[in-house]
Amino acid sequence: MSTKNHRPAVGLALLLGIFSTLGPFTIDMYLPAFPEIADRFGTSASLVQLSLTACLLGLGIGQLVMGSLSDVRGRRGPLLIAMIGYAAASFACALSPHISLLIAFRFIQGFAASAGIVISRAIARDLYNGRELTKFFSMLMLVGNLGPLAAPVVGSGVLALTSWVGVFLALGILGLYLLAMTQWRLKETLPPERRVPADIGQQLRNFASLLRNRQFAGYMLAQGVMIAGVFAYVSGTPFIYQHMYGVSPTVFALLFGSNGISLIIGSQIVGRMSRRFSERSLLLFGLWLAGAASLAVLAAAITHGPLFTLVVPLFCFVASIGITSTAAFTLAMESQGHMAGSAAALLGVIPFLLGSAVSPLVGIAGEDTAVPLGLIILATSAIALLAYFGLAGKPSGSKPQDAPPSSESCTTAAH
Question: Which residues face 186 on adjacent strands?
Answer without folding.
Answer: 414
